[in-house]
Write a structure and sequence with these properties.
896 residues; mainly beta; 55 strands; five-stranded mixed beta sheet
Length: 896
C-alpha cells in the first residue's frame, strides 16, 4: 500500500462505504491495510424533550461538544477500550444543566469501528421565588390608636398581607428553602402574624419559607410613599440548584384621610343674634364647621350628633382628602375607597348634602377619582348610642376580586361619634318659701311672687334618652307666634310701640346677653340631665315653649314659631309644658259683720283679661267692739231718706289705717291686697256753714232745718275726733245782727235727711219772739266729710263702697283701686321702662286716670275704661280698656 496520510485513508474509507466494492479508477487496487476506529460523543438532556448540550467531554483527551449538535469528535483513535464522560457543561448550558452523577460510558473500539457515545446530563432544579400581593398598597397607620383613651379598644389600620413561596423545576435536586424579604425604602413594618404582634426581624428560615408552602407576611404602613417589596432566596450552593432572580413588586404606603368637622363653640359664642328681627335672623350666616383634629375625632365623645327627626337636626361635614399620585403605584386606579359605618349601639347615615337629600349607602370612591379631587359627605345621627363613641365611621379600601383572596381593609382613618337624643324638656320647679309660682296643671307661671327679675326666673330641664354625662345642652324659651297679638295678649301691641326699641329688661332672657346668638347651656350630669335658669318676659299673656338643642345644632337657635322658614327645623320642644306669663294676687276681704257684698267675680274676670289671678284668701269681719270709734253710724245719717237706726260702717281717712291693720299677711302670699268693703266711705275734712230759712214766729223748743251742705256729709258725732258735729251755732235777727250762741247739743241730724248736710237745731226761747217784720235766722258751722266710691292707700289697701243698687260700680271700684296699687294709670315717666307714655292719661287732682272714651252721647262723654276717675260709669266696659291693657300687661306686679 502506498503511503498515504491518515486523512487520505479516512477519505478513502468513506468513499468505499458509500460506493461498495466497486473498482476505483476502473483498475484493481491492492487490499487496504485494516483501519483505526473513530470515536464521537454526543451530550444531550432528555428532560422536556431532547436538547443538545455544550460541554467538555473526557475520552481520548478532552474535546468540547458543539453547542449546535452536542457532538464532541475525538476523530481516529487506536483500537481499544475508552471511558467517556462529561467534563464540564459550558456556557450557556451550564446555567440550567447539571452533570448526572455517574454519567460515564465505557466503549471498546476495534479496527475500523466508528462509535458515537451518548452522554446524558440533567436539568438543574431552578428555584423561582414568588411574591403575591393582597393589595398593591398598605394603609398608613396615622397613629390614632396612640391617641385613644385606655378604656377604648384600639382601632388600627388593617394590614395588607403578602404571600411568599417558591417553585422548583426539578426536585431531584431538592431546595431546602429560606430567604429574605425586604421593603425599600422601609415604609412598612413586617409581621409574621395577622395581629401584627410578631415582627419580622431576620431572614426567613427554611422552616418559615419551605418547599410546597406559602408564607403570609403582614405589612403595616409607617411612612407614606412608594416602595419595592423584594423576596430573595437563600443560596444553598448546590450544583443541581439554581436560584432565580428575586421577586419584586412595586407597592406603596398610602394615607387615607377623612376630615370630620364640627361647629366651633368659640365662634358661636361671639356671634350676635337678631332677636327682634326674624327675617334678619334667617339671613344670619353661621360660621362654617371647623375641622377636628385627630385627638378630637377619637377621644371623649368624638363628634356629637343628635338623632335625626323630621330633618330638624344637622349633619357633620366630612371631607375625604384628595390623594397624592406619587404614593399610589400603577394598577391601583380602580381600587375603591370605602366609607363604612359601624355601631355598638345607635347608628349613623351618610349623605351627600348638608340638608334634604337621599341616603348615600354604600359610599365607594375610585382611587382615580380621589386623585382628581376631594369628596364631601355629611354624616347624620340615626338612633342614639348607649355610650360615648359607640358609633364609628371609618375609611378603608377594597378592590375587585381576582388574584389572592382579599378582605376589605378598614380603619385607614376613622372617627368616633356619639349620637344623643333629647328625650324630655320640662319646667324644673322647686317652690320657694314665697309660694309656688308654677301651676303645672294650668301651665301658668306667676312672675310677681319675687322681685323683678327674680320672680321671672324659671329653670328648664332637659334629659337625654341615655345617661351620658358632659353633653352640652342649650335651653331656650321659644316665644309663641301669637305673643304681642290679640290671641295671647287679648289686645294687639300698640302700633306706637316698636318692639326693637322696647327695653330688653322687659323681654325674656335665655342667653348670656339679650343680643347674643346661642342660648344658655349646661352640661349633663351622670344621669344625662341638665338644667338652666332662664328669665320669662314681663308681659302677662306671653307664652313660651321650653326647648333644647345640642351645641352641634346651632341652627336651632334660629327657631321662631310661626315663621315660614325658621319654624321648619325644630329644637326638642317640651311636650306638655308651655309656659304662660301670669301674675297672682291674693286678697283679704274685711267688712262689717252682717254686711255681705257680692263676690268680686267681675273684678276677677277683669284681671284675668290681663293675666292676673285674684285669689280670695279670707273674709274677716269687724263690729262695734273691734272697730275703731266712729266707724259705725246709724244708717239714716249716711243714707238719704232713711229713718233706719241700724248701724252701718263708714271707712274713711280717720279710721282706715286702724282697720288696715286687720290684714293678715303670710310668707306664701307675697303679693296681697286688703279689700275693705263698706257701705260708705266718707273722709272728714273742714267745716261748712249753713243758715236756716227765716223764722217768723215763736218756735221755741222746736227743731228747724238747716242745710249745711248739699254735697258734704255732717254726722254726729263728727268722724275725726268724736266730738259734737257742730263747731258753733247761733241766731240773729233782721233788726239786730248780734250773734246769740246756741249750745252744740241742741243740734241733731235730720231723720230722714234730704241732703248729706241736712241737720236740725232746736230753737231756744227768743224775746221778743220772731215775726215777719223781724225774722230770726239760725246759723250752724259743722264738721263735714266728703264721700267717695273707694281708694287705695299704702299699696296694699283698698277701700270700696258697696251700694246694692250699683253692683257694676262696686266691681269697677275694686278693679280700679287694685289697678292704682299696680301703678295704673301710669304717669308720664312712671310707665315701664322704654314704653311710650300712656296716650290717654290725665291727673285731675285725684291721681292719674284713663280718659279713653267712645265719643259723645249728646254733651256727655262716653268714658269707658275702668281706670276712669269717676263713677258710676254709664258706658263703662268694666275692665281695662285697649289703651290701658298693654301697660297693665307690662307692669311689675310685685308690689307687696
Amino acid at each position: 500500500m502506498s503511503g498515504k496520510s491518515t486523512n487520505q485513508a479516512a477519505a478513502l474509507d468513506k468513499q468505499m462505504q458509500q460506493d461498495g466494492d466497486g473498482a476505483v479508477d476502473g483498475s484493481a487496487q491492492p487490499c487496504p491495510k485494516a483501519q483505526r476506529p473513530t470515536l464521537l460523543a454526543k451530550v444531550t438532556c432528555d428532560v422536556d424533550g431532547p436538547k443538545t448540550i455544550h460541554a467538555t467531554v473526557n475520552g481520548v483527551g478532552q474535546k468540547a461538544s458543539k453547542a449546535k449538535t452536542g457532538i464532541a469528535d475525538f476523530g481516529v483513535v487506536q483500537p481499544g477500550t475508552y471511558t467517556v464522560s462529561v467534563g464540564t457543561i459550558l456556557a450557556p448550558d451550564d446555567k440550567d444543566y447539571v452533570i448526572l452523577p455517574g454519567s460515564t460510558s465505557t466503549v471498546t473500539l476495534g479496527p475500523g469501528d466508528k462509535q458515537t457515545v451518548d452522554l446524558k446530563v440533567d436539568k438543574k432544579n431552578i428555584v423561582t421565588p414568588k411574591l403575591e400581593l393582597e393589595y398593591k398598597v398598605v394603609m398608613l397607620d396615622r397613629g390614632l390608636g396612640e391617641l385613644q383613651e385606655a378604656s377604648q379598644p384600639k382601632l388600627l389600620p388593617d394590614p395588607t398581607y403578602v404571600e411568599l413561596s417558591f417553585s422548583e423545576s426539578n426536585k431531584t435536586y431538592p431546595y431546602a428553602g429560606g430567604g429574605k424579604f425586604s421593603c425599600t425604602p422601609a415604609n412598612v413594618d413586617v409581621f409574621l402574624d395577622a395581629a401584627c404582634t410578631q415582627k419580622l426581624t431576620a431572614d426567613l428560615t427554611p422552616q418559615q419559607l419551605a418547599p410546597d408552602t406559602k408564607l403570609k407576611l403582614y405589612l403595616r404602613g409607617t411612612k407614606a410613599g412608594k416602595f419595592k417589596a423584594k423576596l430573595g432566596l437563600t443560596d444553598p450552593n448546590l450544583p443541581g440548584v439554581r436560584l432565580d432572580e428575586p421577586a419584586t413588586e412595586a407597592m406603596g404606603v398610602v394615607e387615607l384621610e377623612m376630615v370630620v368637622h364640627q361647629h366651633s363653640r368659640e365662634k358661636l359664642l361671639k356671634l350676635d343674634g337678631k332677636p327682634d328681627d326674624a327675617d334678619a335672623l334667617e339671613s344670619l350666616k353661621l360660621p362654617k364647621q371647623k375641622a377636628m383634629d385627630d385627638a378630637g375625632k377619637v377621644t371623649k365623645m368624638g363628634r356629637l350628633l343628635h338623632a335625626q327627626d323630621s330633618g330638624s337636626f344637622s349633619r357633620a361635614r366630612l371631607l375625604v382628602k384628595k390623594y397624592t399620585k406619587k404614593h399610589w403605584p400603577d394598577g391601583t386606579d380602580d381600587y375603591e375607597i370605602v366609607l363604612t359605618t359601624t355601631a355598638a349601639s345607635g347608628g349613623l347615615a351618610i349623605h351627600t348634602k348638608e340638608w334634604d337629600d337621599e341616603l348615600k349607602d354604600p359610599v365607594k370612591i375610585r382611587v382615580a377619582d380621589l386623585k382628581a379631587k376631594e369628596h364631601e359627605f355629611w354624616v347624620e345621627g340615626g338612633s342614639a348610642t348607649n355610650a360615648l363613641l359607640d358609633a364609628k365611621l371609618d375609611l378603608g379600601m377594597d378592590r375587585a376580586d381576582g388574584g389572592l383572596a382579599k378582605t376589605a381593609k378598614r380603619h385607614g382613618d376613622w372617627a368616633g361619634f356619639t349620637v344623643v337624643k333629647i328625650d324630655e324638656v320640662k319646667v324644673d320647679y322647686q317652690a320657694p318659701a314665697s309660694g309656688p309660682a308654677w301651676d303645672a296643671a294650668q301651665k301658668r307661671f306667676y312672675i310677681n311672687l319675687l322681685q323683678d327679675t327674680d320672680g321671672r326666673k324659671v329653670t328648664i330641664g332637659a334629659k337625654l334618652s341615655v345617661a351620658l354625662a358632659d353633653v352640652e345642652l342649650h335651653v331656650m324659651l321659644a316665644p309663641d307666634k301669637d305673643n304681642r297679638k290679640q290671641a295671647n295678649w287679648n289686645v294687639d301691641m300698640p302700633k306706637s310701640w316698636k318692639w326693637k326699641d322696647i327695653s330688653s329688661s322687659l323681654k325674656h332672657l335665655d342667653k348670656v346677653k339679650y343680643k347674643k346668638y346661642l342660648h344658655l347651656s349646661a352640661k349633663t350630669d351622670a344621669t344625662g340631665y341638665a338644667k338652666v335658669e332662664v328669665i320669662l318676659s314681663r308681659f302677662g299673656g306671653d307664652k313660651f315653649q321650653p326647648a333644647a338643642y345640642i351645641e352641634q345644632d346651632p341652627h336651632l337657635a334660629k327657631y321662631v314659631d310661626g315663621h315660614g322658614e325658621l319654624e321648619k327645623r325644630k329644637p326638642v320642644l317640651a311636650k306638655d309644658d308651655s309656659i304662660t306669663v301670669w301674675r297672682k294676687v291674693w286678697y283679704q276681704l274685711s267688712k262689717a259683720a252682717g254686711f255681705n257684698p257680692p263676690a268680686a267675680d267681675v273684678t276677677k274676670s277683669a284681671y284675668e283679661e290681663v293675666y292676673t289671678e285674684l285669689v280670695l284668701d279670707k273674709i274677716k269681719d269687724f263690729d262695734v267692739g273691734s272697730a275703731p270709734a266712729q266707724t259705725f253710724y246709724p244708717q239714716y245719717m249716711l243714707d238719704m231718706n232713711s229713718t233706719s237706726t241700724t248701724l252701718v260702717a263708714n271707712i274713711g281717712s280717720y279710721n282706715k289705717l286702724a282697720l288696715s291693720a286687720r290684714l293678715d299677711t303670710q310668707p306664701d302670699q307675697p303679693v296681697k291686697r286688703h279689700l275693705m268693703v263698706c257701705a260708705y266711705q266718707c273722709d272728714p275734712g273742714g267745716t261748712a256753714l249753713g243758715q236756716s230759712d227765716p223764722v217768723e214766729s215763736d218756735m221755741s223748743g222746736q227743731y228747724i232745718d238747716i242745710d249745711v251742705s248739699s254735697e258734704l256729709y255732717v254726722v254726729d258725732p263728727e268722724m275725726e275726733n268724736g266730738g259734737p258735729m257742730a263747731t258753733s251755732i247761733y241766731w240773729y235777727r233782721d233788726s239786730d245782727s248780734t250773734r246769740v250762741p246756741i249750745p252744740a247739743n241742741e243740734a241733731r241730724v235730720a231723720k230722714p235727711r234730704q241732703t248729706p248736710g241736712h241737720i236740725q237745731v232746736r230753737l231756744p226761747a227768743i224775746v221778743p219772739p220772731p215775726s215777719a217784720a223781724d225774722a230770726v235766722y239760725v246759723v250752724a258751722r259743722c264738721h263735714t266729710a266728703e264721700d267717695f266710691l273707694g281708694e287705695s292707700f299704702g299699696v296694699r289697701h283698698t277701700l270700696a263702697v258697696y251700694d246694692p243698687t250699683e253692683n257694676d260700680d262696686y266691681f269697677d271700684t275694686i278693679t280700679h283701686e287694685f289697678g292704682h296699687s299696680f301703678n295704673q294709670t301710669p304717669r308720664p315717666g312712671k310707665q315701664p321702662k322704654s314704653l311710650p307714655k300712656h296716650p290717654k292719661q290725665k291727673d285731675k287732682g285725684q291721681g292719674n286716670h284713663c280718659r279713653v272714651n267712645g265719643g259723645k252721647a249728646g254733651k256727655k262723654i262716653k268714658y269707658e275704661c275702668v281706670m276712669y276717675d269717676a263713677g258710676p260709669m254709664k258706658w263703662g266696659i268694666h275692665k281695662f280698656c285697649p289703651k290701658c291693657q298693654p301697660y297693665v300687661l307690662a307692669e311689675d306686679f310685685h308690689r307687696p
